[in-house]
Amino acid sequence: MKKLTISALIGAALTIMSPMSVADSWIAQGVTQDSNRLTEIFEHFHANPEVGFMEFNSARVIAEELTSLGFEVHEGIAHTGVAGILRNGDGPTVMFRADMDALPIKEETDLPYKATNTTKNRLGQDIYAMHACGHDTHMTWLLGVAKQLTQNKDKWSGTVILIGQPAEELIMGADAMVKDGLYDKVPVPDILIAGHVHPVLPAGTVAISDGRRMAGTDQIDITIQGVGGHGSTPHVTKDPVVMAAQSVMGYQTVISRMVDQAQPAVLTIGAIIAGNENNIIPDSATLKANLRWFRMEDRERMIKGIKSVTDNVARMYGVSEDNMPTYEMKGFSTPVINPTHEAQIAREAMSKHLGKDNVLNGFPATMGSEDFHMLTHGYPEVPVVFLEVGAATQQTWDALINEGKQPKYMNHNPNFVVEQGAIPTGTIAATAIVQEFLNKK
């Protein structure tokens, strides 16, 4: 596979933009000049993925880069979180966040900078990990934004806060940073901004729309207690594997019969953990559930439905009331909603530097979830802006538009690849938005 320099990729990404807007864009010119540093950063992050709350190397790189650029840097927030502050006179306070964590997936791409070594999970076990959701790109944007703002202080005033956030995939990192005293170290922002690569949009384009962007979510561990025994005598046990299987099938009616069919909602069981031998019925089984929703009432219906199904399956098998299933509520995030006014400002800012034709509007919301906005969950008056940056080939986009054909590999797949044209595009877009809000007095 021929390795392209990011300078060439930037050139390819910018060819689809309006020539006049690119020529006039100090941000696009600055990103081009920063190309060697960006490619080194991106390929390092991709080759060295770390899972949630274990992003020590990634956090170190971010902290060192921000320090070298003159930021006031705070490290170790919620274990690995990083916050950088750059003050430049009077003006608004604008926060931009990038997530740092990878997924526990073994990479199967043929990229020359693919991840090949193992890393540690929170239990200290050696595992394979992969940046299969583009967080390597997001961290690169953050450091690209930092460089452009420090080199162009004459073009803005105010305070910039850049956040390297752990554990987005767990939907826990943003809340953990707040609980660990983030706002003892940085001021509360006037606006919060984040972005994410999009696996279908072509590199060189961005999308921003107002209203619903991403669903709210819950991660729930459901533990069913039974009575284990020999596989040959199931009648003297209370088999938690069977109870788990029946519960999973029962959950399917929670969405189809309890939630308003006009409202989008998803209930997924991502893992069933029970037993370890063919002839042993275990004492317990754990189901790992993931909920997606846009309305709190639908969330409550799903949680109530899960508990009703599971508890009554347990009762059917004779489980005592003092040994009912337990429910551990883990990651939680509300839906991402872009306000109309701020989305329009962001759209206009990106259009100046990317060209109007490359900024898409009206792109559908997804049932994916984010937790960046939980950084300001305690400050509901703070608006949030979420942008999506194309990371696919033009062929992938054309196949979807012309044939309705989905990409072969989406994010969270071991073969997922971010087209490197997403690096300059995302850096330009994020810098443009941050700078625009800094200049809103």
From TrEMBL:
Keyword line: Hydrolase, Manganese, Metal-binding, Signal
Domain Peptidase M20 dimerisation: 219-313
Cofactor binding annotation: The Mn(2+) ion enhances activity.
Secretion signal span: 1-23
Classification via SUPFAM superfamilies: Bacterial exopeptidase dimerisation domain, Zn-dependent exopeptidases
Keyword Magnesium: no
Chain residues that bind Mn(2+): C133, H135, E169, H196, H412
InterPro entries, per database record: Amidohydrolase, Bact_exopeptidase_dim_dom, Peptidase_M20, Peptidase_M20_dimer
Cofactor(s) listed: Mn(2+)
A GO term for molecular function: hydrolase activity
Domain of life of the native organism: Bacteria
Protein's name according to its UniProt entry: Amidohydrolase
Organism name: Shewanella gaetbuli
